[in-house]
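Appendix B. One record, verbatim.
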Amino acid sequence: MAAQSSKIEWTESTWNPVRGCTRVSEGCRFCYAERIAARFSGKGMAYEGLAENTEAGPRWTKEVRPVPKLLNEPLKWKTPRRIFVNSMSDLFHEKIELSYIQKVFSVMEKAHWHQFQVLTKRSERLLEFSPKLPWPSNVWMGVSVEDNRVTHRIDALRQTSAQIKFLSLEPLLGALPNLTLEGIDWVIVGGESGPGARDMQKKWVIDIRDQCADAQVPFFFKQWGGKRKSKTGRELDKRTYDEMPV
């Protein structure tokens, strides 16, 4: 079976051995995966954990489940590629058992010709399980950070045994003027996109770019975002930033 190609600028393919998710912070409010999932599962249920919950639109159904039949798919893909793991979920979700996460990591370790990009908002669980997981060099581990309220995720990531550690500052909802980039190998920045997208200020992006330059950390600018991200593009000061870990 061919790998599912992706339009996400920093990856090439996606692999979803887990389905479903739930919201944990403001970065989840207008989740693209939630909108896609709602097409197939109905309106779903409202999430009560955010300070406000008045926006219209789809909701996760709160069903989160492993998909064992997809576990071995990357082993069938012979052409090396960058693979975003669980673009439609979070591998470290509370409803996914450690034993299944270990199976996912085992497949990534066996498929050594690929690079796997794992991204989570559940950094506490990531840190808890880190000693029980293999960390081959082809597994890139990242955390999502949308504003200063969740920068603790970076500290948790830094304490894991992942060999490549990265930050996805998307959707960027506020300034991050005091990032600690020690031990971080890559930073992605992007604005929110789709219905209800909140604005991202240029000065926030410039400041993060400059912090990365000072720390010699590769910087990738994904998009300005907006309701139609194709119209706003991804140029910053008349150039694109596509830096990747070495």
